[in-house]
Amino acid sequence: MRQHERIEVRPRTPGRTRRRGTFLAGLAVASLLVSACAGGGATTAPAGSAAATPSGAASQPATGSYPNRTINFVVPFNAGGPTDTVTRLIAEPMGKTLGQQIVVQNVGGAGGTLGAGQVATAAKDGYTVLMHHIGMSTAPALYKDLPFKPLEDFRTIGLVTDVPMTIVGKKDLPPGDLKALIDYVKANKDTLTYAHAGPGAASHLCGLLFMQAVGVKVTEVPYTGTGPAMTDLVGGQVDFMCDQTTNTTGQIKDGAIKGYAVTTKERNAALPDLPTAAEGGLPNFEVTVWHGLYVPKDTPDEVVQKLNAALKAALKDQNVVTKFAELGTAPVPEDQVTPEAHTERLRSQLELWKPILEASGATAP
After folding, report:
1. How far apart are alpha carbons 150 and 160 in whole angstroms?
2. Are 150 and 164 in contact (CB under 8 A)?
3. Tens of pLDDT along 154-204?
4. Taking the complete model, does pTM exceed 0.70, yes or no?
5. What is the CATH number of the domain that holds 143?
6. Is residue 45 predicted with pLDDT exceeding 50?
């Protein structure tokens, strides 16, 4: 599997165009509302106001010509996964607003920390932008030698979307519903395999919560992203996983995999026949995955403002709204598309996950 893949997304402006392994982890809580404590709360910054700078990062002089060349969006997971899908959907309208070509680059590996680390040390000029999800807030507790500090080494641009998770299995997995799956997992814990995108990835966290709630531990199979994990699930090489609706909705509808539950309080409009986890026998099992854009610390205020304005415009783009809905998600409310709201979400999630992961004993290799 290639770790790097570059795909160009051009604006419409004229002239511009497995490894196998066993991770034994148990959580100290019976269930966890991941999206709680992640609720933003900051108000929308007025147009032209200075963007929030995490941990006091200094600003450089304004760069009035920005952008005047190609912008690189780094996705720290392989192509084809949910974060990659979200990024590609917003890249085109953002490029149109900015008047420049956006290149989406996949840098998979180490649960998203490899790509994030590259962006942390990139030039502070706005031409290297990171799209990351909840994994940004779990990495410090999982990786002993993490090469970056989420709050200190990045500036936030704004939140993008909160994506529900789904519990899914290979199409010929015997259980017909979630209750039957729970019983099946308990009875076959020594032979079943659970796929995820690596330590700290959303699919890993959801799996930890599922195994804790069920009360058993199964063999985990980590990948460099849920794209290749999904490929193996469809092919029957692994038994089940937990992944975002942006990566599972089409596969469930096509019958390529078996859907067992959605991890939100209410059923998902894109998958109306799929029960909630609570309906299937896992009370209070709720998991959503938030995404946001980052640039290296000390990136100038003007650059942050322009990227934020382009993100706001992209999240109002009708194609983005429609495609998000088809994938079972939606743009976050506008008051969350700000550096301030994004920074607060990141800070609160760092505080939330640190004690939980330390208590679970889960660590990255």
Report:
1. 17
2. no
3. 999 999 999 899 999 999 999 999 999 999 999 999 999 999 988 777 898
4. yes
5. 3.40.190.150
6. no
Nearest to 87 by CA among 341, 346, 314, 344: 314
Whether 129 and 72 have beta carbons less than 8 Å apart is answered as yes
Rounded CA-CA distance 192/270 in Å is: 29
Domain-located, residue 103: yes
Q: Are 86 and 73 in contact (CB under 8 A)?
A: no
How many separate domains does the chain show?
1
In a domain, 28, yes or no: no
For 206-231, letters b (16+ CB in 10 Å) and e give: bbbbbbbbbebbbbbbbbbbbbbbbb
Which H or E run contains 157?
strand 154-170
> Phi, psi (5° rounding) for residue 193?
-125, 140
57: number of Cβ within 10 Å: 17
The three-class DSSP label of residue 289 is strand
CA nearest neighbour of 166 among 133, 202, 134: 202
Asked whether residue 303 is assigned to any structural domain, the reply reads yes
Per-residue pLDDT of 238-291, as tens digits, reads 999 999 898 899 999 999 999 999 999 899 999 999 999 999 999 988 888 899
DSSP string, 325-357: HHTT--BPPGGGSSHHHHHHHHHHHHHHHHHHH
Q: Which residue range forms the structural domain that includes residue 145? A: 4-17+41-49+58-163+291-360
301 in a structural domain? yes
Give the DSSP H/E element, type plus range, for residue 247: helix 245-254
Two structure tokens written together for 347: 């800070």
